[in-house]
Design goal:
By secondary structure, the protein is of the alpha+beta class. The chain contains 13 helices and nine strands. It binds 2-acetamido-2-deoxy-1-O-phosphono-alpha-D-glucopyranose and magnesium ion.
């Protein structure tokens, strides 16, 4: 069946009976497939919904994932009634998904908004920092044991390095010979890259409910006020560390280039963007943070960057089974860009530390 017809069928299962106009593909997101599905209300106005096909190769327990999202959004709704929230539609038998054997579909309200991939406007960055900080604080009283780990060991960098070693040993598609410098570099920084994971394993950092995928394009903004409207993509909301959310956000937003820029030597941390995000994030979280949490924020940026480089490289060596790719070397291009960013972060660590201290009022 073609996609146009499939999306109509799925929408009907979510009990949307309006006249169908068609769909648009939303390109953002490296794992799930997202579509804006358009209808016409009886009064003649257009009405859209977001339909996603959840990647069940990445998310092995999509039902558990939907339960997590239900609990988390319900918790925030109770605390902040009236605040804009993601609403997942239900089927006639009260499920928030349609599983047709092959695909796992879900549907939410469409929130008119803008997103940013790269940001020149520091107010936008600061507001994103506030939004992710506030998201964490909204969930600070949520019982961690209620959550399923949707991807076990998601930010366990040691585990990510083990997967990289396994991929090198297996060499499934014969690409190891083309990746020697990247393999060497990533293995050479393994210990510093795993420092956050090691502190976690030693019980030195508190487990919190974290978002775990804090790319700035996971915040929807009001196009006029530039205020953050809502944090989206709750698939990886799980127990995690403060540094996971801070580090991943910086990795993405403060990089001078896109995460898959083919000119890797242009990658690096823009310290002004770093400062703006840190200001926003710490304005919400500084009062709750332990000293070690705060002190490890700068290195967490390096950890998350090296971890993602290892994940991209693993997927490249495995034959591109996890991330969506636009070309045969896409995962390699991403690896090189993240590696260059990691190298730059190592060089700017002292500056990043100083900025965090300033933002925390130290
Ligand atoms: C994936 O699908 P998306 O774009 O939200 C990935 C993140 C990576 C990111 C890199 C579940 O996020 O961990 O940081 O790509 N999500 C998952 O762009 O693996
Ligand atoms: Mg995501």
């Amino acid at each position: 069946m073609d996609l146009r017809q499939k999306l109509l069928e799925v929408s009907r299962q979510f009990r949307i009976e309006y006249e169908y106009l068609g769909y648009e593909t939303i390109q953002t997101g490296n794992v799930n497939h997202t579509y804006k599905v358009n209808f016409l209300l009886p009064e003649g106005q257009p009405k859209s919904f977001l339909v996603q096909n959840v990647n069940t190769f990445a998310f092995r327990n999509p039902v558990g994932l939907m339960e997590n999202i239900d609990k988390v959004t319900e918790h925030i709704r109770r605390k902040k009634p009236g605040q804009l929230a993601l609403h997942f539609h239900h089927t006639a038998d009260r499920k928030t998904y349609v599983a047709d054997g092959e695909n796992f579909w879900r549907m939410t309200n469409y929130v008119p908004s803008v997103t940013f991939d790269n940001v020149a406007d520091l107010d936008v960055v600061r507001n994103a920092g506030k939004a992710f900080g506030e998201f964490q604080m909204d969930l600070s009283d949520f019982d961690i044991t209620e959550l399923t780990e949707t991807i076990p060991g998601f930010h366990n960098t040691r585990q990510r390095y083990r997967a990289l070693r396994d991929a090198i040993a297996a060499d499934r598609v014969g690409r190891v010979k083309t990746a020697a410098p990247e393999i060497d570099y990533l293995l050479s920084i393994e210990d510093v890259a795993c420092s956050l994971t090691d502190l976690q394993a030693a019980g030195k950092l508190p487990l919190r409910v974290t978002h775990n995928d804090t790319k700035i394009n996971n915040v929807l903004f009001d196009p006029k006020t530039k205020e953050a409207k809502i944090v989206i993509d709750l698939d990886t909301v799980m127990p995690g560390l403060m540094g996971h959310d801070f580090g991943d956000a910086i990795r993405f937003a403060a990089n001078r280039v896109a995460e898959d820029c083919p000119e890797a030597d242009r990658a690096g941390v823009d310290l002004e963007v770093f400062r703006a995000f840190a200001e926003g994030f710490l304005s919400k979280t500084a009062g709750t943070m332990t000293v070690l949490e705060r002190e490890t924020l700068p290195v967490s940026c390096l950890c998350l960057t090296a971890e993602l480089a290892a994940r991209f490289l693993t997927d490249y060596l495995d034959g591109d089974r996890y991330f969506k790719v636009l070309s045969a070397d896409h995962n390699m291009v991403r690896t090189r860009c993240q590696m260059a960013l990691a190298r730059d972060m190592l060089g700017q660590m002292e500056e990043m530390k100083q900025i965090v201290r300033q933002c925390a009022g130290q």
